[in-house]
């Protein structure tokens, strides 16, 4: 387990690269307040208009011509603050004369940003306080700057372990884990139910690690060897994956041309598992039922191009269908289709992937703000749609064909419970052992569970927490 986490931490993106090989270039340094202003502006957008940091931050860095170490610092400040928000709010509640939820939202974000610099970066305390106060002064005025100075100086009196002893509840284990690892308490409870009490702390800690950049070499278009030739390193499990140790993957020519992409290794493997699962009879038509934005469709389409089947990739949203078009070759069909009202006859396909909309609790490393947006009601509200989509997928595959039910969540209500509920009302479906199929692809892959379902974990595999069930229609 520890080795996987060390491996995952060695391929982090830290700088700029050219078309040939990742590497650092001489960069014009950006003023410190401009770097922090980028982080603050993203934090404000995330809270005020539900923006996604992973989409907004790269665009803002390009617009403000920020790269190299400055971009890396802005990225760390943004994501680090979002990950630690729950912990920082608990500390700020003790350092402020008013509750955090009563502080003006822009000022609150600036205090969180300053607290992250003080407690989880190597920035000297005096610099973290002074730059934060200067930013408060420019955003909120001199009066608020005095308040921020007083609060942040109190934060600076202790380091993070000392603060955690004070703010973490003593007689409430879930509460202690929630504050220590900055997750809502209900998510801690759900993840503990899924992974077990022995591993829950490791899982929560892994959620707060910055994920590495994993590339996918789309079959028939490029190879892992080509990516390694550009400076990437070999991956642990997927035969199509390579780890980028540093740099911007968008600067690689193979990525810009669509021959390679950025895709989590677990995401690659669940798509590959569908292609490798044993079926009976013909193998000519494949369907990706909820394909946007196109990552898994890109893998399936490339494999289909090599083997001969035709892939149809669909999504209910036109803008997501547009993204699919960019990810697949011209041989694949792309359509705007509501998966709960299919536009094809029953039994039309040999293999069907249904990657259902979910809470996204398996990707909290990449989308840390999701933990603060989701609620138990979010999970409950998605359940009927997940069941409807799985039913459509099973109806769309012919007898002898295979369905892969996939979700980027380990929450039991979104994984095995959905599959078991749908199958309890049918007598024409057989569960295949997804663990056997995956270990046939990657023999060193362990820790997926006892089958027939497979669950990836960040702390075990260095991947998102992808769930996979493989189902054969009888």
UniProtKB/TrEMBL annotation:
<protein>
    <submittedName>
        <fullName>Transcription antitermination factor NusB</fullName>
    </submittedName>
</protein>
<feature type="active site" description="Nucleophile">
    <location>
        <position position="408"/>
    </location>
</feature>
<dbReference type="InterPro" id="IPR029063">
    <property type="entry name" value="SAM-dependent_MTases_sf"/>
</dbReference>
<feature type="binding site">
    <location>
        <begin position="290"/>
        <end position="296"/>
    </location>
    <ligand>
        <name>S-adenosyl-L-methionine</name>
    </ligand>
</feature>
<dbReference type="InterPro" id="IPR035926">
    <property type="entry name" value="NusB-like_sf"/>
</dbReference>
<keyword id="KW-0808">Transferase</keyword>
<feature type="binding site">
    <location>
        <position position="315"/>
    </location>
    <ligand>
        <name>S-adenosyl-L-methionine</name>
    </ligand>
</feature>
<feature type="region of interest" description="Disordered">
    <location>
        <begin position="1"/>
        <end position="32"/>
    </location>
</feature>
<dbReference type="InterPro" id="IPR049560">
    <property type="entry name" value="MeTrfase_RsmB-F_NOP2_cat"/>
</dbReference>
<dbReference type="InterPro" id="IPR018314">
    <property type="entry name" value="RsmB/NOL1/NOP2-like_CS"/>
</dbReference>
<feature type="domain" description="SAM-dependent MTase RsmB/NOP-type">
    <location>
        <begin position="186"/>
        <end position="474"/>
    </location>
</feature>
<keyword id="KW-0489">Methyltransferase</keyword>
<dbReference type="Pfam" id="PF01189">
    <property type="entry name" value="Methyltr_RsmB-F"/>
</dbReference>
<feature type="binding site">
    <location>
        <position position="355"/>
    </location>
    <ligand>
        <name>S-adenosyl-L-methionine</name>
    </ligand>
</feature>
<keyword id="KW-0694">RNA-binding</keyword>
<dbReference type="InterPro" id="IPR023267">
    <property type="entry name" value="RCMT"/>
</dbReference>
<dbReference type="Pfam" id="PF01029">
    <property type="entry name" value="NusB"/>
</dbReference>
<dbReference type="InterPro" id="IPR006027">
    <property type="entry name" value="NusB_RsmB_TIM44"/>
</dbReference>
<dbReference type="InterPro" id="IPR001678">
    <property type="entry name" value="MeTrfase_RsmB-F_NOP2_dom"/>
</dbReference>
<keyword id="KW-0949">S-adenosyl-L-methionine</keyword>
<comment type="similarity">
    <text>Belongs to the class I-like SAM-binding methyltransferase superfamily. RsmB/NOP family.</text>
</comment>
């Amino acid at each position: 387990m520890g080795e996987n986490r060390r491996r995952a931490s060695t391929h982090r993106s830290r700088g700029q690269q050219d078309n040939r090989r990742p590497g650092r270039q001489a960069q014009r340094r950006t003023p410190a307040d401009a770097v922090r202003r980028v982080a603050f502006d993203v934090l404000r957008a995330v809270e005020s208009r539900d923006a996604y940091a992973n989409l907004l931050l790269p665009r803002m860095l390009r617009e403000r011509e920020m790269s190299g170490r400055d971009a890396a610092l802005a990225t760390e400040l943004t994501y680090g603050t979002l990950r630690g928000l729950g912990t920082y709010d608990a500390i700020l509640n003790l350092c402020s004369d008013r509750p955090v939820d009563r502080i003006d939202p822009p000022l609150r974000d600036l205090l969180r940003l300053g607290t992250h610099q003080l407690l989880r970066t190597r920035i000297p305390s005096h610099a973290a306080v002074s730059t934060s106060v200067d930013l408060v002064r420019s955003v909120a005025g001199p009066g608020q700057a005095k308040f921020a100075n007083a609060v942040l100086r109190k934060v600076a009196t202790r380091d993070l372990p000392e603060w955690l002893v004070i703010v973490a509840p003593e007689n409430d284990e879930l509460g202690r884990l929630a504050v220590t690892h900055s997750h809502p308490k209900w998510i801690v409870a759900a993840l503990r139910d899924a992974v077990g009490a022995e591993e829950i702390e490791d899982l929560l800690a892994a959620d707060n690690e910055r994920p590495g950049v994993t590339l996918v070499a789309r079959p028939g278009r490029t190879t892992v060897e080509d990516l390694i030739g550009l400076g990437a390193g070999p991956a642990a499990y997927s035969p199509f994956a390579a780890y980028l140790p540093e740099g911007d993957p968008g600067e690689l020519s193979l990525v810009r041309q669509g021959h390679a992409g950025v895709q989590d290794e677990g995401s690659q493997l669940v798509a590959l598992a569908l292609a490798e699962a044993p079926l009976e009879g013909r193998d000519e038509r494949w369907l990706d039922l909820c394909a946007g934005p196109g990552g898994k469709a890109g893998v399936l389409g490339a494999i289909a191009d090599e083997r001969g089947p035709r892939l149809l990739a669909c999504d209910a949203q036109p803008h997501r269908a547009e993204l699919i078009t960019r990810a697949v070759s011209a041989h694949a069909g792309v359509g705007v289709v509501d998966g709960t009202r299919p536009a094809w006859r029953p039994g039309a396909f040999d293999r069907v992937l249904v990657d259902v909309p979910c809470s996204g609790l398996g990707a909290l490393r990449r989308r840390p703000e999701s933990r603060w947006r989701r609620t138990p009601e979010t999970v409950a509200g998605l359940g009927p749609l997940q069941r409807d989509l799985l039913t459509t997928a099973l109806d769309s595959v012919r007898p002898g064909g295979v369905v892969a039910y996939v979700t980027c969540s380990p929450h039991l209500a979104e994984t095995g419970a959905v599959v078991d509920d749908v199958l309890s009302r049918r007598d024409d479906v057989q569960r295949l052992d997804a663990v056997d199929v995956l270990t046939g692809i990657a023999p060193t892959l362990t820790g997926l569970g006892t089958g027939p379902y497979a669950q990836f974990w960040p702390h075990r595999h260095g991947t998102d927490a992808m769930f996979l069930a493989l189902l054969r229609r009888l």
